[in-house]
Inverse folding.
């Protein structure tokens, strides 16, 4: 099983996700997901140059979007 497949299947048990992992979950491209994060459409936090998505906020965001 690849890391990306494992990340998608157990994402709700994690604390944060990378933009790449969120892109896989949403079925979007990496660039489109980074652009959504830049526009503030995705809940993110920055640690240095790294952009992460908190799972709790992402789950709430998904619920509100549906």
């Amino acid at each position: 099983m690849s890391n990306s497949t494992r990340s998608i299947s157990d994402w709700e048990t994690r604390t944060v996700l990378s933009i790449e992992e969120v892109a896989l979950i949403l079925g979007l491209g990496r660039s489109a997901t980074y652009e959504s994060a830049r526009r503030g459409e995705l809940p993110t936090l920055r640690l240095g140059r790294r952009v992460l998505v908190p799972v709790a906020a992402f789950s709430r965001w998904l619920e509100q979007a549906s």
Observations:
- The two ends are 30 Å apart (CA to CA).
